[in-house]
Design a protein that fits this description.
The chain is mainly β and 656 residues long. It is built from one helix and 57 strands.
Length: 656
């Protein structure tokens, strides 16, 4: 097996093809003489060129009026640009995917089992693979092959359900396949950049439906595996501190999965003691947390020079994966007495005198006169405002659950407390200091888990008007103590599955107009969060088997109204009580009646349509008199679509 570069080209009509780059240079354009010729007005005569130099492949834009882009970036005219391992290129209406390394030859797909296809099917559909794995910020693709087994051309529709529509291209496509021929469709999957679904398996149902020649359909199941992305960013701020000074550990979850962390420290000298505000926490995807810490010596020296000690804060990821991030930092420990003070007796005497004066001096006692919170209860992540008034205070210290988190000057009277990383009641202390004199007041703040709607989606974005249909609704809601999904009028729940914070329900009904599915979630303090899914209701469609005469009423004796053209879909507006005549609407808005056997309806039976009660009356017969040469008159009765009837009177009528 060899590895060569490959191009996957998707044409404007939905077809796709693969080409191996087995030459030093190939060109693509609309004129003859190109390596790959595409007769399309959106392409120049010589549009672009792929050339190889060593192990690299370069793209060159050959026409300034028809700009070629590489992953969304303009390609300069006549300037070779080196391509990455996988590149997405747009040339006119063509979509091109370049692969630096591709298996050659292509591995043949196994034939699809007859058990997965209709027994008397006029076509076959199969997937290149049953599972596609994709990660955030990346794309993956697979091939869908549709083979027309009949002796006439076929019209088909591709429909999908189970994934957000913006993930997949194409997700709704009508295409044709020639008799005894096959078409390969390239299905591309790329989660959006704001994708917040957890890693896991997401089933996708692909339906290939024949719009003419039997109304057959084939359903294929494809499993989309969304891979998890892990990563942790951490930093010590500042990286060099003095003993007993507060510093912070900043953490950021770079992945799309919840991260469980165990915090600790490593001291090679075994001379330090580190206190962390928290020793364990969980970070949701892309969540940031700041943990305060203090480092101090186990035994502070009495004499000597300041000493620097190196230690490391540790963030151990328990799940997902097991890894440890070590963040080095340095602390400076000063002795109680500087050794240089002992070298000068005079300075020592002054120091002793000052120390004695300090002992004799009693600083004023600070007093906190008020300490309040802006809210007694806040949602996790929302700030809480602290305010206070005090006298004789030279500085303030804020503590949370016994650990200092902020030091403020004497003029401060307010502080904004960030509640990320906290849950349940926390104790907040305000300490006013003046020398060794202190005053302390407490407040308790309740921090609760807010409601977060991670997923609320429906398997279909539209239903058929007045046709009984099923609709599956999915949800994942965190932090809710009560959850309700309000159903539209005329619908009822036929199935419900709930597992923890997520679940799905299946509802059934016959909608008449557009409607919404409303989700209401209530948090632990009674707050409500709502989400809505709009569902469009469209008229059911039928396709004429051949050119079909339409009448002004449900009978061939009515006036001829219009024609329904073969294979051009029309809207089904109703039926007669016996469901033998269809009332249809053409694309230009004209309406008429046609016999039901002349149409093939998609996804429903004609008997399920609304019965039209306001029928026009049948036309009545009229009598016309015409004179003869003998002076007699012959009465003729005429009626629409009925044979002529001549009525001869029994007596002669004279012309007097």
């Amino acid at each position: 097996m060899t590895f060569q570069s490959r191009l996957d080209i998707r044409y404007p009509d939905g077809r796709s093809a693969s080409y191996v780059l087995d030459q030093d240079a190939i060109t693509i354009g609309s004129a003859a003489g190109n390596s790959i010729r595409v007769s399309d007005a959106s392409l120049a005569a010589r549009h672009l060129r792929f050339s190889r130099a060593g192990d690299s492949v370069y793209l060159t834009n050959l026409d300034a009026l028809h700009l070629t882009t590489d992953d969304g970036e303009p390609a300069p005219l006549n300037e070779p640009r080196r391509l990455r391992e996988i590149c997405h290129i747009r040339a006119g209406l063509l979509r091109i995917i370049f692969y630096q390394s591709s298996e050659e030859p292509t591995v043949a797909m196994a034939a699809i089992s007859d058990a997965t296809q209709p027994t008397a099917a006029h076509f076959r559909a199969r997937l290149e693979t049953g599972t596609v794995k994709v990660w955030r910020f990346s794309a993956a693709s697979t091939s869908l092959s549709v083979t027309n087994l009949s002796e006439s051309d076929g019209l088909f529709r591709l429909e999908t359900a189970g994934l957000p529509s913006e993930w997949m291209s194409p997700n709704d496509l009508t295409f044709s396949v020639a008799a005894n021929d096959a078409v390969d469709l390239l299905l591309r999957f790329k989660p959006t950049r704001n994708h917040d679904c957890a890693p896991g398996e997401y089933p996708l149902i692909i339906t290939v439906r024949q719009l003419d020649g039997g109304d057959e359909s084939v359903q294929l199941a494809l499993l989309i595996e969304v891979g998890g992305v892990g990563g942790l960013s951490a930093a010590v701020e500042p990286p060099r501190v003095r003993a007993r000074d507060r510093f912070n550990l900043a953490l950021l979850n770079l992945g799309n999965e919840e991260l469980t962390l165990q915090l600790g420290f490593h001291d090679p000298s075994q001379q330090l003691r580190v206190r962390l505000a928290q020793d364990a926490l969980r970070l949701k995807a892309h969540e940031r947390a700041v943990i305060s810490a203090i480092v101090e010596p186990r035994h502070q020296p009495l004499l000597g020079k300041p000493v620097d000690y190196t230690f490391a804060l540790l963030a151990e990821a328990r799940a997902p994966g097991d890894y440890t991030v070590a963040l080095p930092a340095t602390v400076t420990v000063k002795p109680i007495l500087d050794y240089r003070a002992l070298a000068a007796a005079a300075i020592s005497i002054v120091i002793l005198a000052l120390a004695l004066a300090t002992l004799l001096y009693q600083p004023p006692q600070p007093a906190i006169t008020s300490f309040t919170l802006s809210e007694e209860t806040v949602a996790q992540g929302e700030p809480a405002e602290l305010s206070w008034a005090a006298a004789e205070a030279l500085r303030y210290v804020i503590e949370v659950n016994g650990l200092p988190i902020a030091e403020l000057p004497a003029h401060a009277s307010r502080y904004t407390l960030e509640t990320r990383g906290y849950i349940d009641p926390i104790d907040i202390a305000l300490i006013a200091l003046n020398g060794d004199a202190t005053d302390k007041e407490y407040q308790r703040l309740n921090v609760y888990q807010p409601v977060i709607v991670r997923r609320f989606a429906a398997a279909k974005s539209s239903l058929l008007r007045d046709i009984q249909s099923d609709l599956t609704i999915y949800w994942r809601v965190e932090g809710a103590v009560a959850l309700d999904i309000a159903l539209p009028a005329g619908f009822e729940t036929v199935q419900r599955q709930v597992a923890g914070d997520e679940g799905e329900i299946v509802i059934a009904g016959a909608p008449a107009d557009n409607f919404e599915i409303i989700l209401t979630a209530e948090d632990e303090i009674g707050g409500r969060t709502t989400r809505a899914i709009p569902i469009a209701v469209r008229d059911p469609e039928c396709t004429p088997i051949g050119d079909t005469q339409l009448y002004a009423g449900p009978d061939s004796r009515f006036e001829r109204a219009n024609y329904a053209v073969q294979n051009v879909p029309v809207l089904a507006k109703g039926v007669t009580a016996a469901a033998d005549w269809l009332h249809v609407e053409l694309a230009n808005g004209d309406r008429g009646w046609g016999f039901h056997t002349n149409f093939r309806c998609h996804g429903f039976e004609p008997a399920n349509l609304t019965v039209v009660s306001d029928m026009p009356p049948l036309p009545t017969a009229t009598l016309a008199l015409r004179p003869t040469r003998a002076g007699t008159a012959i009465a003729t009765a005429t009626a629409l679509s009925a044979p002529d009837l001549s009525i001869r009177p029994s007596s002669t009528v004279s012309d007097s």
